[in-house]
Amino acid sequence: MPITPYRDFTTVEELDAQYDIEASVPDFGCYVEQFVARSAAARAALAPRLDVPYGPTLAETFDVFPGAGPAPGAGRPALLFVHGGYWKVTTSKEWSYVAAGLVERGVTVVVENYALCPAVTLREIVRQHRAAFAVLYRDADLLGIDRSRIAVAGHSAGGHGVACLAGTDWTGQYGLLPASPIAGVVGISGLYDLRPLPRTFVGPHLGLDDGEATALSPQLHLPADPPPTVLAYGTAETAEFARQTCDYGTALRGRGFDVDVVALPRNHFDILDDLADPDGPLARAVVGLVGD
Length: 292
Hints:
The protein is an alpha/beta fold and 292 residues long.
């Protein structure tokens, strides 16, 4: 089916092939089973505080996995993790497993839950991400966290979320000081340019038109002063997912910002093993941003 052209794509089928991440691996169902089982095991082993509210709706909660070992006087460093799922599937509970490696290294990992499309808009989801960080920052002392060492990481649609966090006016909108309260950003296989999505199979689920896709694309609205940033993608991902990361990294570097772009020998789903492994390159990147 022809579409309004986007870049070099002229048909729905061409774009769908790039953005159908489930079809990009031969055994997607196995990954889902592993995520569920590994996450249940992580919750059983790590004794997290589950479903801590950060907003008024039932979906606005996060799960807190305290870092191992004695907490330093100022509190532990922390990571807020924003999951993917094209803004329309999964909850925090399918992603608990990503906490294991960093917890072992003494980092508290907070896995955010949020409402999903089409029950809410993508713009509302971005607001919920911001509320989650604001509450985490405000309540850091209660959670044993050093608020000066909170990084954020997001995978796939969650990569979009953490890019939006980097571009937030934290003082003007939330009263947070300093104006740049995020210690670092790790975007993993993220979506930073939303303009292709209204033309794909995922568009109807998101209720996203061209104007809103443009307004909500971090690629087109770069932060004024982002924290140190690591952007990763898998060499076994589609060309568009690689482009999304590389283009966003190039745009940030063009403004003179501190950005590392990393290509890992992974696909869209097993790339998170490099965060869940305490010695994985993504876990090391987080520790480099927040200290351990």
